[in-house]
Amino acid sequence: MSIRTMISYSIATLLSVILVLVTTTFNPGQTPKEVYRVYLKGESIGLINSKEELENYIDQEQSHLKDEYKVDKVYAPNDLDIEKEITFEDKTLSTQEIYEIIKDKSPFTIQGYKIFIQGIEEQNEEGENEKQEDQVLYVLDKNIFLNSVHKTAETFIDKDELAAYEQDKQQPIVDTGKIIENVYIQNEQTITQENISVNEKIFTTEEELSQYLLFGTNEKQDTYIVQEGDTVDNISFDHQLSTDEFIIANPTIKADTMLFPGQEVSIGVLQPQLNIVEETHVVSRQTIGYNTVYENDPDKYAGEEVVKQEGMEGVQLVTQKIKLVNGETKSVVPIDTQEEKPSVDRIIVRGTKQRSVGGGIGSEVEVPVGIGSWVWPTITPYQIMSYFAYRWGKLHKAIDIAGCGEGSPIKAANNGVVVYSGYNGTNGNYIYIKHSNGQYTEYAHMAVRYKKAGDVVYAGDIIGTMGHTGFAQGTHLHFGLWNGYPFRGTPVNPLTLFQ
């Protein structure tokens, strides 16, 4: 067979095959038509003639959702796809038939905004990394979110001061005062408009979202019935709240409000979902604590004291940069200090004669020096960043003292023996001192330690310098007091030593 014959035969065979396929696919006179194939969760559920008709039918049949959310239109489920198709297939479903398949298998949607809030990762006092959960919120109008954030900011920042900052109407500082330099949300946020499933929690009011941003829930907060003798302070502490948190949870109550038996108060624990940062420039008139100066008497036993001269406090004008997060002071940086009235030293004659005792270093060590007068462990000016109090449901078992400046001296608060001097990732450089009354004082985040385990120290001795080693947000001293060995005994508010 010639090549030409072979080609002719092949073409004829191909044409005959095509003719057979065509005649079996459609009947003579049949024409293709435009329809829409409906997919639910990726699977085809049928053909319809009109996409628009189905969308309108959904909107009509789900009118109760329009009333519930006060929106103009209800949309198809997010996992419903409708694609145009050209086909010879005759069978299509009615709009109602497709709707009946959809309605019980997937939720319908309304138009709104999806807000993603990235959680902040921080280290807690135990040195463990803690991260706020990432949040996905849904609102009908993004202004609901923006206004709720503003309401949350007003919870932690004075309303009038915040308004003056926003309107650029803050009064300049003439003598003393505060200027807000910056307010911002530490968390990254993304806002996108999209169709939201009605199965999601959709915030429709600012009040509802504001409560969630403060408490992390929209459930009704726990309450407590005030008993005879109750105060804001004791109710707060007993229910693991700071007084500030208690007042936030009970806006009509102030710190000095007299409570009455039978009164119902909220004891909801705050769990802020945003970190609202306030950076301020503050000028204040502060007391200069007097120094306690000791004259040693080797003939008297340690712990025996006689006051030779009473001390007198002075006055100074202090300028500081203070950073707060959700109303909690995170750093205090001193800028300037001007002495207006000098302090007068307190002079004490103390014994230095030691009693003979044995024992090794540790929880069982005996202290050869008696308790004397308690001495504030830092220089002035200072500011207490965090008190011995609950915060977000956790007890801060010390006070944090700031505002003294990096490298400023840290003093032993009383006579005692250093039972530990070391470093770890949480406390940085820290020292524990045991005192003869069985109490221990704790000094953490020091830049430098001057004392080692076994050293006998006296009240006012410099044991190190102020720093921010370990987990510390800004330069400060973590000053703790324990009845019994730290973390095995009972934490006590150190401020009780100076009352």
Radius of gyration: 36 Å
CATH architecture of the largest domain: Distorted Sandwich
Question: Which consecutive residue ranges, at least 5 long each, have pLDDT under 50?
Answer: 1-26, 358-362
Helix-strand category = alpha+beta
**Whole-number count of domains:** 3
Sheet having the most strands: 8 strands, antiparallel
State mean pLDDT (0 to 100 scale).
Answer: 87
Number of continuous helical runs: 9
CATH homology-level superfamily of the largest domain: Glucose Permease (Domain IIA)
Indicate the overall shape: elongated
Termini distance? 120 Å
Instruction: Please state roughly what percent of the residues sit in beta strands, choosing from under 5%, 5-15%, 15-25%, 25-35%, 35-45% or over 45%.
Output: 35-45%
Helix content: 10-25%
Overall strand count: 31
Summarize, please:
The protein is of the alpha+beta class and 499 residues long. It has helices spanning 3-25, 51-61, 63-69, 95-103, 142-156, 159-166, 206-215, 232-238, 243-249; strands at residues 33-40, 43-48, 80-87, 109-117, 121-123, 129-131, 135-139, 177-185, 189-197, 202-203, 223-225, 264-266, 276-288, 292-301, 305-309, 314-325, 328-341, 346-353, 383-386, 389-391, 394-396, 399-402, 409-411, 416-424, 428-434, 439-446, 448-449, 456-457, 462-465, 477-483, 490-492.
